[in-house]
Each structure stands twice: as structure tokens, then as C-alpha cells.
Write a structure and sequence with these properties.
mainly beta, six-stranded antiparallel sheet, five-stranded antiparallel sheet, 2% helix, elongated
């Protein structure tokens, strides 16, 4: 996905000629932070899965944390059955307390960027059945999670749970000065090629750090496929979807992550092709960005080079202007 910038106020028809924009990460920055959370979830015998305890800490890039999480279940006679708890401690216990797992965890934050959080982790599961250890790395989106360990628990929980599991999740903490601010997005789709031009506009709004989805629906375009004397016209149905997430920075700029998917399929045939792209940039409020979307890639089973040559000649771009909402 290519990106450029122009100054606000230029007419839409002139947006095709743009200067190079500044990609986030080109300049050195202050250390970034992320909140890491180790979470224990349990699947009840009736089928529902719920979190039953967690440990979290906010770290700068390069920072590390450790936690000890003991899972317990209680079935007192005078209360509802299957009362659960996860007890945390700083110092590792000498031994697990009961038949359910004691997880000893550690994590190091390697990268903390918008929708791209990288963590090195290790865990040790201690139980009467023996100890198990594992080390690995996880690349997480914001509020995404990774399953680290999974343990059958029906017998150990007296039938309350089918299993318990250990998860790792991550999020970017919001700056208290901006967490309630909102950002407006004026987002144009421009499709040009083969003598045709189509534009559609969406006006969106989201809170600081909120992922805002967009979908331009289906639009049709006639493509001339092949060369004379064997050229033919193919009606192509195309879609453009994606999402935007952005954050206001202390210097007043806006850090923006835009991800988009461009899809296409011929109306008279049954294959579907798509291409994905994303770009992270820094812009000032009111600055206009132009993002060129890559053409759909042919599926391995489809042998229509003329069709995909015509699709590549159909240029599709997103024109985005972010502004702050007072």
C-alpha cells in the first residue's frame, strides 16, 4: 500500500499528485508502553467460557514482569457450587495448593505499536501430575489474545469445569489527556481506469484508540479484457473494506493506522480475488492522505492473466482527512 500526503483544502480532483508522507517509526520516539495481562479462563460443564482471574502490568518496551497464579475451586455446602478463585503472589510458592494448576509466568515487552504488540513469554505449570514448561513469542493486535496452555479439569474441579486455560493479552494504555477525545474521518474511495471514474464518500468518527470499520459495499465496473481482435468486456464486482485506528500525540499530531482489503470477482464466474494492505503514518489534523490499494492477486486455481492485468490497470485509492472533534 503506497501513501502520500497533501495539504488540506486541495480539491478532490487534484489529489492524485501527492508528496511523500512520513511513516510512523521513521523518527526516534520516546519508549512506548503496553499493558500485558495473563488471564485464566474456565469452560464450565454447561459449555460457557469465562475469565476467573488475571494478573496485569503496564510496561515500557524492554520491560519485564513475572506472576504466580494458583487456580482453586471451592464447593461449600451452604453456597452455590463451583466457586472459583485465582490467587496471585510475587514469590513463587513452594508447591501447588490443590489439584488445579499453579502457573508461574514471565513476559518481556519487545514492541508496543498500534495493533502490533510483540511479547516474549515463558510459563511453568505446576500440578500434582508433574511440571510442564514452555517459552515462546507472541505478536498480538490490541485486545487480541494468545492461548498459552490448556488443561482438562473435570476431575480436579469435581465436575465444575471441563478445562482451564492460560491466555496472554495486550492493549495500549490511553493517555489520560486524550482518552475522551474523538477523531473524525472524511474518507473517499476513488476508482479510476479504462475511461471510468467512480467516487464514494464515508464520514466516520471514533474515540481515541478506537478501531473504526468501513465498508463501501459492492460496486461494478466494466473491464476490457484481452487485446484486439479477441477483446471482450467483463463486468467485475468489487469491494473495499477495512478499518482505521488513530491516537492523538502529545505534539498535536495524529498517529494513524489504516488497513484495507480490496476484493474483486466477475459477475458471471465463481472465483474471488483480494489483496490486503495497511500503513501507519503520522499526520497533522486536517492533513489529507492518499493511500493506493494494491490490485487483487490471482488465486492459484485461476488462469486468467488478461483479467488480472485489467484489474491492475484499475487504480483504487483511499483519500483520508482526519480532524479533531471539539
Amino acid at each position: 500500500m503506497r501513501i502520500g500526503m497533501i495539504r488540506n483544502g486541495v480539491a478532490l480532483a487534484a489529489l492524485m499528485a501527492t508528496a511523500g508522507g512520513r511513516v510512523v517509526g521513521d523518527d526516534s520516539a520516546v519508549p512506548r508502553k503496553a499493558k500485558l495481562e495473563f488471564r485464566v479462563v474456565a469452560t464450565w460443564s454447561k459449555g460457557a467460557t469465562h475469565p476467573i482471574g488475571s494478573f496485569s502490568e503496564q510496561l515500557e518496551e524492554g520491560g519485564s514482569t513475572t506472576a504466580n497464579m494458583q487456580v482453586r475451586v471451592d464447593t461449600p455446602a451452604d453456597a452455590s457450587p463451583c466457586q472459583s478463585s485465582v490467587t496471585g503472589s510475587v514469590s513463587p510458592p513452594a508447591a501447588p495448593d490443590g489439584p488445579l494448576p499453579l502457573w508461574q509466568t514471565e513476559a518481556t515487552l519487545r514492541r508496543a505499536e498500534m495493533d502490533d504488540i510483540q511479547v516474549d513469554y515463558a510459563w511453568r505449570r505446576r500440578s500434582p501430575a508433574g511440571d510442564v514448561t514452555h517459552r515462546g513469542s507472541a505478536r498480538l493486535s490490541e485486545d487480541g489474545h494468545a492461548l498459552l496452555d490448556f488443561v482438562p479439569a473435570s476431575e480436579a474441579s469435581s465436575g465444575c469445569w471441563d478445562n482451564v486455560a492460560l491466555e496472554l493479552s495486550a492493549s495500549i494504555p490511553e493517555d489520560s489527556a486524550f482518552k475522551d477525545r474523538r477523531i473524525a474521518y472524511d474518507l473517499w474511495l476513488v476508482s479510476e481506469g479504462h475511461g471510468n471514474r467512480l467516487t464514494r464518500r464515508l464520514q466516520l468518527m471514533g474515540k481515541q484508540g478506537e478501531k473504526v470499520a468501513f465498508d463501501y459495499g459492492t460496486f461494478r465496473s466494466k473491464l476490457t479484457v484481452g487485446s484486439r481482435p479477441n477483446e471482450r468486456t467483463s463486468v467485475m464486482e468489487m469491494t473495499t473494506t477495512g478499518n482505521i485506528r488513530s491516537r492523538i500525540q502529545p505534539d498535536g499530531s495524529i498517529e494513524i493506522l489504516l488497513a484495507a482489503n480490496r476484493g474483486a470477482h466477475p459477475r458471471e464466474r465463481d472465483w474471488y480475488a483480494e489483496a490486503h494492505g495497511s500503513k501507519k503514518v503520522s499526520a497533522t489534523p486536517g492533513e489529507t492522505l492518499r493511500l493506493e490499494l494494491p490490485p487483487p492477486a490471482p488465486p492459484a486455481s485461476v488462469k486468467e492473466p488478461d483479467t488480472f492485468k485489467a484489474l491492475a490497470e484499475q487504480h483504487v485509492a483511499l483519500i483520508l482527512t482526519p480532524t479533531l472533534v471539539d
